[in-house]
Amino acid sequence: MAKPNIFEQIKDVEYALIEYPEYQHSLKLHRSMLKMLTSIEEPPSKITTNRWEDFVKKFSRQITLEKPIINDLDAAIFDAQIALRICQHTLSILKDHRIEQKGIHNLNELYEALEKRELDMSQWLDAVLKGDAEWFESHGKQFKVEPAVLIFVFSKPIQPRLEEIARKIPASALNQWWQPICPVCARRPALAWFKEGKRYLTCSFCGSQYLANRFLCVNCGNTDPYSLGFYTFKNFSEFQIDFCEKCKHYIKVIYDNKLKKRIPRGLEDYLTQRLDELVIEAGLRRI
């Protein structure tokens, strides 16, 4: 099951703000991002060119997945002007929520570069699609902004379309994927659901959820059960941390049959932040 559409996601955030008030700062920021996308992306097709429809038709004929779908995308599919507006609004929301006080600086300089049309959006979108870490490292130094912040900002125009793709993939294709990286966006998920004795890796970016080996490190691919461990928590029996002793990375696992209250799809990472705090002393790293 993938993420619902943006309007349903907003409803889920409203639910989570009531049921999980301890995470309201993150949830309110996320809600602002979703509302921004609905106001700009009306109708949804505006963010992409006519080539998008051709791509979706081609994709819908695929029965099996042989490589991540993002590999077949290129920046020309996206409307550069609308993508620019989304990035500008994303930066404004980060500033409004005072994210710069948490280590994100010089957002003004980046915003001005966008406003003056000094950045070639097609190059930035292409860097996101290709996962070009060097591009974001070099430009992070240029703007004195963390590369992760740049990736977050310039991924926003692309994310709704990848979520749309994830909703269209047949479950049969996802259950045959069996790779650690996401079949849609090629990212490595930091979270999984455990349902009916099976572990489903869950991408927080595009929302794709796919069957994976229970004994598999998503980061390094280790499948040796003797070097793969897990942590459970007395006060959080519905959660587990799976970790790899070789690379020291971990993922969070949600046990569906033990949940005390609903965790909406797409909000898992927000509503399990407490787990990230609990494993800091263990010297483990998020993927």
Structure description:
It is a single chain. With 287 residues, this protein is of the alpha/beta class. It folds into two domains: 6-163, no CATH class; 168-286, FdhE-like fold (Alpha-Beta Complex), CATH 3.90.1670. 41% of the residues lie in helices and 12% in strands. The chain has helices spanning 6-19, 24-40, 51-60, 80-96, 107-115, 121-130, 133-143, 147-155, 159-168, 171-174, 273-278; strands spanning 191-195, 198-202, 209-212, 228-232, 239-244, 249-255, 285-286. Strands 1, 2, 3, 4, 5, 6 and 7 form a seven-stranded mixed sheet that branches. The mean pLDDT is 89.
Uncertain residue segments: none
Gross geometry: globular
Helix content: 40-55%
Number of domains: 2
Order of helices and strands: HHHHHHHHHHEEEEEEHE
Helix- and strand-based class?
alpha/beta
Mean of residue pLDDT values: 89
Number of helices: 11
Distance between the termini: 22 Å
Question: Largest beta sheet, briefly?
Answer: 7 strands, mixed
The count of β-strands is 7
Indicate the radius of gyration in whole angstroms. Answer: 19 Å
What share of residues are in beta strands? 5-15%
